[in-house]
Design a protein that fits this description.
206 residues
Length: 206
């Protein structure tokens, strides 16, 4: 089992999985109820998706996501230079991740389920909590900004808010980098977040 990330999930399900499409529709109805309750415009998920994403890994172990979240904590002012996570890294006992969840509580990357849930292509500041799949709803635009903020810390070069296809492939292939796992997860999230904003489709964790 691992975390799968996708955009255009409703469009894909309408073609290949009618029952799955019904589940996604129900999820998105709850998402829109949470958005409306927070005073945020609702999301209209497209039923056709033909976007092309940067090369990325479609799924990975749930634990990998926590390594990128740990890296993000080093973007906070006053933090020391980032170092690779120890071999026995445990997100449940990491003090910096604990601060993200209990003190700051404003990171769309960190304050989200690591197993299920959605990001929508609407720019809002605060993570939305509610009776929705995963319990927390993020903004694709906010996620993109956080990914761009952490990129230089893990050795990813961006230009005008994006990366080249060659760079995206390198994130998949270079296993010798000290932040190879963080970079691979970054590439998956970035590819989907970029497509989400461009094509107005939700990111689905599942």
């Amino acid at each position: 089992m691992g975390l799968g990330i996708e955009v255009g999930s409703l469009a894909g399900a309408l073609v290949h999985d009618e029952e799955g499409a019904a589940w996604i529709r129900r999820d998105l109805e709850a998402v829109n109820a949470a958005l409306a309750a927070a005073g945020v415009p609702v999301h209209r998920e497209p039923e056709v998706f033909e976007g092309k994403l940067l090369p990325h890994l479609g799924s990975f172990p749930y634990s990998f996501l926590h390594l990128l979240r740990r890296a993000f904590t080093f973007t906070r002012p006053g933090r020391p230079p980032i170092t690779p996570a120890p071999a026995d890294f445990d997100p449940a006992t990491d003090s910096l991740l604990d601060e993200e969840l209990s003190l700051f509580m404003d990171s769309h990357l960190c304050c989200h389920s690591d197993a299920e849930g959605y990001y929508v292509p609407i720019d809002f500041a605060d993570v939305i909590y509610g009776e929705i799949t995963g319990g927390m709803l993020g903004s694709s635009q906010a996620l993109l900004r956080e990914l761009l903020a952490v990129a230089p810390l893990i050795g990813i070069e961006t230009s005008d808010g994006t990366v080249s296809v060659a760079t995206a492939n390198a994130l998949l292939d270079d296993q010798s980098h000290p932040f190879s796992t963080e970079r691979m997860v970054w590439g998956a999230l970035f590819a989907n977040a970029q497509a989400s904003v461009e094509h107005k489709t939700a990111i689905r964790f599942g």
